[in-house]
Amino acid sequence: MSILYKTLRLTLITCGLVFSASFVYAQAKNAIGVGLALNSTREGAGFGGILQGEVKINRFISITPALGAETPYVVYASFGGRYYFSPDIYGSLGALGHIGNLDGDSDGYGGTAGIGFILLSTTRDVIDLGFHCDYITLKDNGTPLVGLRLTYNFSFNKLNQ
Hints:
This protein is mostly beta strands. It is 12% helix and 62% strand. It has an eight-stranded antiparallel β-barrel with strand order 1-2-3-4-5-6-7-8.
């Protein structure tokens, strides 16, 4: 439980710092990406992979559908959005549905929120690190999940440097 608490506390502190920063030119994009994920729940730690898209609405906002396989989920699909506070920092919010195990007795839905940082960016390639907090149903109980995802994204539109 302490790793869950520490990760959640770090995420909330980081969100507070970002929201208190000044708003500057941001850069949403049209992209597709793959990545690795690590997470933690009350039941233990997990890992997995993700395939995600990003569809630019304007320079600050994008829609982010994703499909992944991570423990404690077997498979999940999410649909959310990102708001870019700056070219390198974004906040995310969305909904997800998941298959909890192969027996089907832990299928459910939940919500997700997070903050992400662009670690490396060229004119078309982006590596980002996203911290997220999900609230999901597992075995008919609400369960908080915290984690991080490191993704490589290929942008279909040229990014400003």
